[in-house]
Design goal:
Helix content is about 35%, strand content about 10%. It has helices spanning about 45-50, 65-75, 105, 120-130, 150-155, 175-185, 215-220, 245-265, 275-300, 305-325, 330-350, 360-365; strands at about 30-35, 55-60, 80-85, 135-140, 145, 165-170, 195-200, 230-240, 375-380. A 9-stranded mixed sheet has the order 5-8-6-7-4-1-2-3-9, with helices on both faces. Helix 6 (about 175-185) crosses helix 9 (about 275-300) and helix 9 crosses helix 11.
């Protein structure tokens, strides 16, 4: 927390991260890309995997993409495992206690808001990494671009001392609705590292991504204490999108409260154990004060025209409306369930075999009794790759599903669709 930080908000948590120079470079085993956008968005991830001589894992869902489309779009030189994720309930993941706290279950107004499968895909990537014996993987969102291979090698080199290393994501920084409105209105706001560009030591870490907004901030935590050992290096750029929608703000608020409330403690050298009912009683008041202050800042911003100002204020009102339904008891109950899920995840991941053939790994990605995931594999010739050639030949299908608006905002210049 900076010396001039306001009393109702911490605009940066970067003091919690290690950063430095003279970093040893190392390789990575795979780049894992959860995707719901058109395959054109995978081009730069494919180029990065080619430059790093590593496997590209693409996890597809919704109507705009599929494993088959990805292989049609991407160069034949890429070592790729493309998987269609049809139903997250079929995946070989624990039964989460936090599932009872999913926003669409506890907040009726969100019942029709499309649920994201991002955390399930990221957890599936961790399961596949365990099964294949990968020790260093990169999670990369499909809207992240301009990643320098040397930055990834530096991040991997830091895994000798850290459990996870993020790239600093610039461009259109990935903030919540509230924090984006605050920054645009002149507030001091810096982005933290996250799952959009994150290199992970999968042999050592036993964390998971809960299905909640800010799932990556939860992944970086050590269940009962504070942060895992995490660092930042290099950089990347995120494509722009339109964040200012009331339904989006409502969907974010519970995860935003929990994550910001925990990191508020960590900034003050406290721990997750201090996130008790008294803390949440105090923090929820602070959060309300902050959002109301941001509303005033937006209302006073002369750079915005009337329509845009109204749109942003309505989005902030959505956040405030959701905040009124969040209680200290709910926050405490969620963290208790999350910590139980941490233990369940550790048992689950440790029980999985490792370094198994790819055909066996693919079969183990779904629960017993559930159909295997449709997938496509490509092994380029003339390269020392991790995929046996005889394991190719699976068929992919095109999936139906609702599109998250964020997945159709922008196509890279010159991309072929």
């Amino acid at each position: 927390m900076g010396p001039c930080e306001p009393q109702d908000h911490h605009g940066s948590h970067r003091d919690l991260l290690w950063s430095g120079d003279h970093i040893q470079r190392s390789s990575i085993d795979a780049i894992i890309v959860p995707t719901a956008r058109r395959p054109a968005y995978l081009s730069q991830a494919a180029d990065l995997a080619d430059a790093l001589s590593c496997t590209l894992v693409t996890l597809h869902s919704k109507q705009w993409t599929s494993a088959e489309k990805a292989l049609q779009r991407l160069p034949e030189s890429i070592d790729i495992i493309a998987i269609d994720v049809t139903d997250p309930a079929d995946l070989n993941l624990p039964d989460w206690q936090t599932a009872q706290f999913m926003p669409d279950k506890i907040f009726p107004r969100l019942a029709k808001y499309p649920r994201t499968d991002l955390s399930a895909k990221r957890n599936l990537g961790l399961v596949l990494s365990r099964l294949r014996g990968w020790s260093a993987v990169m999670f990369l969102d499909d809207d992240i671009t301009q990643v320098d291979p040397e930055d990834v090698r530096r991040a991997s080199g830091l895994l000798d001392a850290h459990d996870a290393v993020g790239l600093h994501v610039g461009g259109f920084d990935d903030h919540s609705v509230v924090c984006r409105a605050y920054r645009d209105a002149g507030g001091r706001q810096q982005s933290f590292i996250g799952g959009g560009a994150l290199v992970v030591q999968t042999d050592r870490t036993r964390s998971f991504f809960p299905e909640i907004y800010n799932d990556d901030w939860f992944f970086l935590l050590d269940g009962h204490k504070g942060l895992q050992s995490v660092a930042v290096t290099g950089g990347a750029v995120q494509y722009p999108y339109d964040p200012f929608r009331p339904d989006r703000a409502r969907a974010e608020e519970f995860g935003e409260v929990l994550a910001e409330g925990i990191y508020w403690l960590l900034d003050q050298d406290l721990s997750i154990a201090d996130a008790d009912q008294a803390h949440w009683t105090s923090y929820l008041k602070v959060r309300k004060q902050f959002i109301e202050r941001v509303q005033d800042m937006v209302a006073a911003d002369r750079a915005l025209d009337g329509n845009e100002k109204t749109r942003r204020i309505e989005s902030l009102q959505g956040s405030l409306g959701r905040l009124r339904l969040i209680t200290p008891q709910l926050c405490v109950a969620y963290l208790r369930a999350w910590q139980a899920d941490q233990e369940a995840w550790r048992r689950h991941i440790d029980a999985l075999p490792t370094r198994v053939p790819l055909t066996e790994a693919m079969a183990r990605l779904t629960r017993p009794g559930c159909p295997p995931l449709r997938h496509k594999l490509r092994q380029p010739r003339g390269r020392d790759l991790r995929l046996p050639a005889q394991e190719d030949g699976h068929v992919a299908v095109t999936l139906d599903g609702r599109e998250d608006r964020r997945h159709a905002e922008l196509v890279p210049a010159g991309a072929e669709l």
